[in-house]
Design goal:
By secondary structure, the protein is an all-alpha fold. The chain has helices at about 1-65, 65-90, 95-120, 125-130, 135-155. About 25% of the residues are buried.
Length: about 160
């Protein structure tokens, strides 16, 4: 009888331990789910925000010739790159779109930095002309097309499943 009671106690204890392990895994899955859900909103907002900071800072630098706009611009480059890296890690489903976004970002940053170099040489009109050039506008249009598509449809492309 004691052996049966001991065996029953071990079975119940094993079941309890197993249940606690499953509960812990479920809790971790829920935490991951909510973190990823928050990122679905934060990433597109941050991409739009930092893009706007870069664009407006470049325009303001070209018109005001004030270095504070170049400093503000440079302060926003790394956060944009970090946001894209987080998006790449968090949502591998949209990497093809992130590749396109990063390609256009690189082109735009290159052109904007070229305009800053022109500003340093006091070639103000040329710096402004570069930011309003066909190449810049085409790159900006392509960037907007890809980033709008990606950020608008990010929930569609991500596979977040409720636990």
């Amino acid at each position: 009888m004691k052996k049966h009671l001991l065996l029953l106690g071990l079975i119940v204890l094993s079941g309890l331990i197993f249940s606690l392990i499953l509960l812990h895994q479920h809790r971790n899955n829920l935490i991951d789910f909510y973190i990823k859900s928050d990122q679905r909103t934060l990433i597109p907002e941050n991409i739009r925000y930092y893009d706007e900071v870069l664009t407006m800072s470049a325009y303001m630098a070209s018109f005001t010739h004030d270095n504070k706009w170049i400093e503000r611009y440079e302060e926003a480059v790394l956060p944009l790159e970090n946001t894209l890296a987080i998006a790449r890690k968090t949502f591998p489903e949209i990497i093809i779109y992130l590749d396109e976004i990063e390609e256009e970002v690189d082109t735009l940053i290159s052109l904007e930095r070229q305009s800053f170099e022109l500003l340093k040489e006091d070639r103000f009109k040329e710096a402004q002309a570069l930011l309003f050039s066909e190449k810049y506008n085409e790159s900006k249009k392509e960037y907007n097309k890809v980033s709008s598509f990606t950020t608008l449809w990010l929930p569609e492309f991500t596979s977040i499943k409720a636990i």
